[in-house]
């Protein structure tokens, strides 16, 4: 296949890679297309004395049974069902800080908000959350606060008591909702490739069984507005910002 034919059709354009600061995501529709693209990247990289680290490469499929087998230089690329984030590891890695009596509770709380939560929320602007996901987020947030307060598991300290001691302005889910709505406003006001991607203007069909909530559907549920009403609201940045904060602050933890 020609390089221009490999990839995914989005808004009438063919996209086969997404580049980040130090990572690249390849987008293809077939196993052969993926192997072809990897081999081309490998060939061009070696011209610049760069070499692919096969052990760090992962394959994630969105359909079928996920049984994709691609071997490069006698090394098979691992297929995964999910990518794991490091939010819990980040919380544990600074355990000595939580134990310190020389650091105030206010400072520790700020560190959780500035160091731990951003890792757990990486890429959350594009998330659609089910009730089970919301419960896991709530559980993680409360676990962070309990570890911060050094509350053993044996005493019967309720979540309500924990939150009264911490006094967080907004829940972790509220933060995620705010970021998602803020990003939605940015996307709708722009005229870039992000808009057709995020609004689901991607070629292909959806599976009939177990269909996931679309991103736009999540925005509608967050705001209670139709697509046309949303288009009108985002044009006024001040109104949209105020509504975004109001909705985020109204998010109630399921574990409370």
Overview of this protein structure:
The protein has 256 residues and is mainly α. The protein is 48% helix and 9% strand. The chain has a two-stranded antiparallel ribbon with strand order 1-2. The chain has a two-stranded antiparallel ribbon with strand order 3-4. It has a two-stranded parallel ribbon with strand order 5-8. The chain is globular. The termini are far apart.
Helix vs. strand class: mainly alpha
Q: What percentage of amino acids are in beta strands?
A: 5-15%
Uncertain parts: none
**Major sheet description:** 2 strands, antiparallel
Rg, please?
22 Å
Shape label = globular
Number of strands: 8
Helix content: 40-55%
- SSE pattern, N- to C-terminal: EEEEHEEEEHHHHHHHHHH
- How many distinct helices? 11
Strand order of the largest sheet: 1-2
> Can you give the mean pLDDT?
84
Number of domain units: 2
* Termini separation: 55 Å
Protein name: Reverse transcriptase domain-containing protein
Summarize the structure.
This is Reverse transcriptase domain-containing protein. The chain has helices at 31-47, 87-93, 95-99, 105-120, 131-149, 159-166, 172-189, 194-198, 215-223, 227-233, 237-249; strands at 8-10, 13-15, 17-19, 24-26, 58-60, 71-72, 75-76, 78-80.
Keywords summarizing the entry:
mainly alpha; 2 domains; two-stranded antiparallel sheet; 11 helices; Reverse transcriptase domain-containing protein
List the helices and strands and how they pair.
Elements: E1 8-10, E2 13-15, E3 17-19, E4 24-26, H1 31-47, E5 58-60, E6 71-72, E7 75-76, E8 78-80, H2 87-93, H3 95-99, H4 105-120, H5 131-149, H6 159-166, H7 172-189, H8 194-198, H9 215-223, H10 227-233, H11 237-249
Parallel strand pairs: 5-8
Antiparallel strand pairs: 1-2, 3-4, 6-7
Helix pairs in contact: 2-4, 4-5, 5-6, 7-11
